[in-house]
# Entry
Amino acid sequence: MTAVDDRLGPSANIARAANRVPTWQLGYARRLVAIDLLAVVLSVCLAQWLRFGELTQEVPVYRYIDYAHLSLAIAVFWMSALSINHSRSPRIVGSGAEEYRRVLLATLSIFGGIAIISMLLKLDIARGYLMIALPIGLVLLVAFRWGARRVVVRMREKHGRCITRVLVVGSAPAVRDLTKSFAREAGSEYEVVGACIPGPVRRADIDVAGVGQIPVFGDESNVVGAVTATNSHAVAVTATERLDGRGFRDLSWELEKLDIDLLVSPGVVDVAGPRLKMRPVAGLPLIHVEKPQYHGAKRFEKRLFDVVFSSAVLLCGLPVLLAVAVAIKLTSRGPIFYRQERIGLDGKPFQMIKYRTMVDGADGMVDKLSDLNQSEGGVLFKIREDPRVTTVGRVLRKFSIDELPQFINVIKRDMSVVGPRPPLAKEVRSYDDYARKRLLVKPGITGLWQVSGRSDLSWEDSVRLDLFYVENWSMVSDLLIAVKTLKAVFSHSGAY
# Structure
C-alpha cells in the first residue's frame, strides 16, 4: 500500500462523508439575524423618538396608519431586503467589502422604495424621520457587522477556529502560490489542508515557504477520498493541464453529493474583482479582464478627492503644523522642512516636502550606515533604530506627522493622497520592467504599502502591493485605504 493509500485509508469511502458546510458559517449567519434586527429596531425607534419626542404618540401618516405602524413595517421590509440581497449568505459573511456592499444596497433600496410609494400615494411621511432612520440604521448595521467580523478574525488568529478547510487540486507551483496567497492575509478564512496533483504522484508533501508542508493525496481521481480524509469544506481547482472540461464537470457532481463547495482559481494574479467580467461564449464561461483606467472621469474624480481632502487637512491641521514647526526649530539645528527629490508620474522628478526628522546632513551619512540596513531585498534603506533621527523626529514618525506637508505636494499636482510609495531616483534606476509600472500613477502620501505594514514590508511585498493598486485603482479603494491609514497610524505599525 502506498503513502497516498495510507493517508486515504478507509475514510475514502464516500458513504462516510457527512455534510461538510462549516458549522461556524451557519451559526454566524444566524447570529447576524439578531444583530441586524437590533440595528434596524434601534434605528426606527430612535428616528421616531428624536423626531416626535416619544414612541407611543399616535402621529398619523395615512388614514389609520401612524408612525408606530410605519416603523414596524419598515423594520419588516428592511430585514426582508437584507435577506433578499443575501447579505447573510455563508458565501460572503465575514468577507468585508462585499458584505457591506450588500447591506448598503438593501438599505438604499428600502428607503428608495419608501420615497417612491410616499410620492405616488401622497403619504405624509416626515422627511426628518427618514433622514434620521437611514443614516443611523446604516451606521449601526455596518458597525455591528464590523464588530462581529472582528470577533471571527480574533477567533481565527488566536484559537484557529472559524476556518474553512480547503483541498487544492492543481500543479505543485499553483498549490504553493494559492497557499501563500491565503496565508498572506491576516485572519484569512481559508486554510489549505491537502493537495491533489494531476499526473504521476512522486511526492508525499509540497513544501511551502513560510507555511510548512502540504500533504499530497494522489491525483485528480482521489479528490473525493482526499476531501473525506482531510475533513475539507471546499475544493479549490487551480492551474492544471490534466483536468479537462468533462473531468471538471464530473468532479463538481461528485462534490455536490457531499455538499462540498467548489472554488476555481483562474490563475489571474493580483487583479481585483471589479476588473473581472464573466462572459458566456458558446457555452463556455470566459473571464474578461478589463484594462486599467486612469483617464477621463476617473482621473477627474481622483483629482477632486485629492484637492478637497488635502485642503481640509491643511486648513484643519494648521495649529498642529505651526506647533510642529516651532518644536523642530527649537530642538535641533537645520531647516524646518526636508526637501528630497523623488520620482513621480511617468518618471518625472519633483521635490517632496516633509518635516525634518533627522539631523541636518543625514543624507551624507548613508554610506557609513549601509551595514545597518534592515530592508529585506531591493534597494530600500531602512534602520529600525536610526541614529540620525532626532528626539522630536521619533515622535513625528511614530504618528506620521512628518508627512503632513506632503499635502502641499498634492495641491501642486506632484502627488496624490493615495498611491504607490514615492521612490528615490536611485531606486528607479534599478527598477525592472515589472517594478517600473509603479510610475503609471502619481505617488501617494498613503497607499496599500502604508496600511499593510509600512517599513516592515519586504521589497517584493512593497512592489506587489503598489502594482496591485496601479492595476486595480478605484475611488472606493482610495476611500478604504484612507480610512485604514488612520488605524495604521494609531497602531504605529511599521513606523520607524
